[in-house]
Amino acid sequence: MANPSEALIADRYAVLLAQPLPDAGGGLPAFAAKDRQTGDAALIAIQVRRDMPPRARALQMLTGPIEGVLAPLAHGPAPGLRNEPGYFVVCPAPPGPPLAGRLRPWPEAALIAHALRPLALALDRLAARNVTHRGIRLNNVFEGQRGQPLVLGAAWAAPPAMHQPTLFEPPYSAMCHPAGRGDGGIADDVYALGVLLVALALGRLPLAELDDTAILRRKLEQGSHGALAGDERMPPFIADLVRGMLAEDPEHRPTPKLLLDPAVARSRRVAARPPRKAQRALPIGEIVVWDARTLAYALAAEPEHGTSALRGGAAVQWLRRGLGDAALAARVDDLIRLRLSDPSTEESRSDAIMLMRAVATIDPLAPLCWHGIALWPDGLGPLLAAGAGEQGSTGTLEDLVGVEGAAGWGVLRTERCDFGALRQETRQNRASLGTRGIAGGLPRLTYLLNPLLPCGSPLVADRWVGRLADLPAAIEAAVAANPKVVPLDAHVAAFIAAHGDSRLEADTNALSGTVQNPFGLPELRLLVQLQLRFHPRPLPALAAWVVGASAPMVALWCNRPHRQELADRLRPLAQAGMLPAMLALLEDPAGRNADASGARLAAAELSGIEAELRGIVAGAGERRDIAARIGQEIAAGVGLTALATMLALAVLG
Amino acid sequence: MRAKAQAPRRHSMVWLQGLGCGAVVALVPAMALLLGVLLLPGVLAVLYDRQGGRPVARTVLLCGTAATVAPILALWSAGNSMDACMVLLGDLRVVGTAWSTAAAGWILAELAPVAVLVVLEAITQARAARLRAARERLVAEWGFDDT
Question: Residue A609 is nearest to which of B66, B131, B140, comparing CB atoms?
Fold first, then answer.
């Protein structure tokens, strides 16, 4: 039976925080879990980091168990080890420990039977669901008893390939920011599987003595196969297989289905030419370049030096004379001339565009490189989430989205991407970024691209708010704990806009809060919509806060007695905790019209009064003249009357 | 040119008045003397009143003339002789009454505009007070000073 106070994921899985499983999560914190419905305890729950959202698409696509993979069963929020807000992905427990702790040389037959075939089958099943794994590494591949097939660990609780070592990633993925590697393709999993086969065949990790940068440089300079297996002694069958699996071009690697028949896969020849070496080196920053691929990498990794080398002509000259590739030099030269002939745009932005295009031209396999950050376009979302707190990084990415850099990159390699979809996605991203108001900008784009990223507002920092349904209660708790906070900030607004429908989006776009007046009718309308749709229960603390902050809304009414009446009527409504009634009272379109009409009439009356008072003040002189004239007429009348009286008396005798 | 055009009209009135006065002096000298003495304040008022239409002089003359009616009748009844004129002029009550009446006319002409002004100002201030009260009521009700 489930403990009533126990937080269950998907109403059935309990996280057993007292039973940590440090080796089960592939490097992420993992705990034992239990299915409260069936009693199944052979489960693990992998904890998600707040700034590294889980893979929403993979979690959506993988709905049932898959043989050979720790596929997700459920995911949801639950308290963490120190009772902090947490989020877990529940998977079946691995059959044994990871390979990292028990690496030994595997015989060829065992490699094929227990590693290659079952893992290729698992990848094939993932590929059938249009999902990549992107987590094939020694600490995330598990072995049960000897002689049993290997099992791929869970790779869903963090952005794709985020925890992959450089060794296991293709160089064009390894050079990216860990959060910006994107879902990639199943060929990237085949590459990682190839590296795993090399490690298992050797019984140790190749290039273990080198750091990540050196491994990457060696892969670029010698090719992955040459760098990892060139000097190693391996069974010929495995060596041939691995040659294809470690091909630089993803299209040259065998598919998982092909790997199911290793003999066929071995016979598939890869036309891999070694990179052309230059006669002399070109130094770009601290990188000494001998071939075109390394030049592209150097331009990406050392953007300032790379820009100088391009604008100064050193790179083109080296391509033409040092490397002897006149055609490539001409293409790069065209890009530079285009940049130099366009002085209208901002200097640094133009240089970044030129550098990005130069990298894509020199090495079409390279990722998008922008201001020193390399990423694949589908890795933009996790990269934004991971870099949310880094000012420089977010500014760079904002710039990239603002100039639709991904489309500019894609147009140079249309044969290697779905350019139409990429352009459309890029435009949507730019439109989201350009949305005005507090609900727009980078936070909105970040939440749009990361559906499972929790709301990052400080208001709800003590909760994991990943759905709109969780937001009203979290805001209520935040306001109850600290009545001085404003219940709607930029993060909350962006979160609502990204997760809501068109009505909520319109409401968030209408938000008009300022620093001086952060809460008004648009903000209240949004909260009302949240309560109506997601939390049809009282929110007394929030309602009380709204009453306290209602002065600007009440002040929209002109009639002062009505203002007082509104304030008096709001208080009992706040005690009931229902925001819609409060909004109806404050909004009241008919009442507002009557109020506005009354105000107009009163203003006209006041204007008349003011004019008359001014006339009275200005009319003093005129009044004096009138008084003099009337007084003199009266005096004359009295005199005339006296004369007439005397004459009458004289006549009458 | 305009001043020259107006000048003959004024001179003709003066000549007409001079002609009238001369006729009275020539035909009834006693009557002219009596009128000259009794209406002396009015004549002085006409000379010194520089306002348009001479309103003060007009009132003084009207009042003085009213007080002159009885002495003129008395002189006429006494044969319009110079002796009778001198008797009347020697009577301080006759001259005093005429001049006092003229003085009363002068005071009336001076005080009446002041009295009217006081009444007008009282009416205006009452109206202004009512307007200010209405303004304060509107401001209190609609808060125009806030918005």
Answer: B131
Minimum Cα–Cα distance from B72: chain A residue: A650
pLDDT of residue A632: 93
Q: Are residues A435 and A288 in the same domain?
A: yes
Count how many domains chain A has. Answer: 5
* CATH number of residue A61's parent domain: 3.30.200.20
Q: How far apart are CA B76 and CA B70, in angstroms?
A: 10
- Identify whether residues A241 and A107 lie together within a single domain: yes
Regarding whether A328 and A291 lie in a shared domain, the answer is: yes
Give a yes or no: residue A593 inside a domain.
no
Residues A286 and A431 in one domain: yes
Query: Inter-chain contact B135–A613, Cβ cutoff 8 Å?
Result: yes
* Token digits of residue A236: 């010929």
User: What average pLDDT does this structure show over A153-164?
Assistant: 95
Per-residue pLDDT, averaged over B107-133, amounts to 95
Q: Can you give the pTM of this predicted structure? A: 0.79
Closest CA to B32 of B92, B72, B87: B72
Please name the residues in contact with A513: beta carbons below 8 A apart, sequence gap of 6 or more: A438, A486, A488, A519, A520, A522, A523
ipTM: 0.86
Q: Do B116 and A613 touch (CB under 8 A)?
A: no
Name chain B contacts of A560, Cβ cutoff 8 Å.
Answer: 140-143
Q: What is the mean pLDDT of residues A216-227?
A: 91
Q: What is the DSSP string of A379-413?
A: GHHHHHHHTTT-HHHHHHHHHHHHTTHHHHHHGGG
CATH number at residue A184: 1.10.510.10
pLDDT at position B136: 92
Shared domain check, A572 and A476: yes
Interface of B with A in 112-141 (CB under 8 A): 112-117, 119-121, 124, 127-128, 131-132, 134-135, 138-141
Per the CB < 8 Å rule, is A639 touching B66? yes
Domain that holds residue A573: 456-587
Task: Please answer yes or no on whether A603 and B131 come within 8 Å at the CB atom.
Answer: no
Inter-chain CB proximity B105 and A639 less than 8 Å:
yes
Q: Note the pLDDT of residue A1.
A: 45
Contact B66 A599 (CB under 8 A): no
What is the arithmetic mean of pLDDT over A451-478? Answer: 92
- Residue type at position B46: V
Q: What's the pLDDT at A269?
A: 67
